[in-house]
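Exercise: predict the structure of this protein bound to 6-O-phosphono-alpha-D-fructofuranose.
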Amino acid sequence: MVDAYQPIDHEYALDRDCTTLSRHVLQQLQSFGPDAQDLSTLMNRIALAGKLVARRLSRAGLMAGALGFTGEMNVQGESVKKMDVYANEVFISVFKQSGMVCRLASEEMDEPYYIPENCPVGRYTLLYDPIDGSSNVDININVGSIFAIRQQEGEDLDGSASDLLQSGRKQIAAGYILYGPSTMLVYSIGRGVHAFTLDPSLGEFILSNEDIKIPEHGPVYSVNEGNFWQWDEGIRDYIRYMHRHDGYTARYSGALVGDFHRILFQGGVFLYPGSVKKPEGKLRLLYESAPLAFLAEQAGGRASTGIQDILDVIPDKLHARSPLVIGSTEDVALVESFIQERSRQQTEATAVR
Ligand code: P6P
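Solution:
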């Protein structure tokens, strides 16, 4: 008698290699309906953008004119890198002729970009930072792309995209692509956080970590301590506590995506506080803090301005900035406790006068 077929390892490996991003989205939603198909297609296009950017980054050092500055300044007042421009255009290109995305809002563009053939039929808006951490690009240290997807509300007939000025709880999907030793795409559509690793031999992002959970506490605190002199006393008190207590270690790469990725997997906290001069901080809400806050909450962590949940902040303009404290619930709460204590002392001191 023939032995019953016993699936062996390669059966598992084959199924895993078939768990691409688009299939995973449909599995998550347990639906093949139009909304599910839309999200699956959107994520597939974002994956294509990631592959195109990863390919360029991997060869940029050998390509004349791929690296360095363009000589322009962006709306943020930052010098623009050639890779910023390339990556920005990649995300626009992958959504042309898609019928999906009518508007794209990017760190690199003063106003949202409208894809005429997709408007108004395309009911989705992509908000993105095409290359986050571009100061690292020319020295071959990890960078990332950050993205969020929102549904367009109303016809936006005046082109003001004012419906985007809503809290991060309006995001229907968010994630990032980390261009590191391997290229990883991490995303959530509100059903947990999942990571895919690019298999260059397949040209596909394959599921590598499902349902990621941020540990409640971790040893890492990630902040640019060179800004210590600019911070409010509450943040300074927190940093002094880190310096005086065992069990903490500092990690900071200068690229938000890589620093957050470490926190997502190992726990701890990343913070980019406001300063006395710039209380709103440096990071942009709609396409940096809010997408990562969406992931952090989906992974059982937290994201706060230090006072308020990031996902509850309502921006007053497209490129609004926000302070960011993000990571393990216990470590975010510890930062907030120092801010609250200083605030209490200041209130008391004022009352006494
Ligand atoms: P600093 C990169 O420019 C970025 O927006 C984030 O990726 C990063 O976390 C932060 O700025 C670094 O800023 O002031 O520490 O160089």
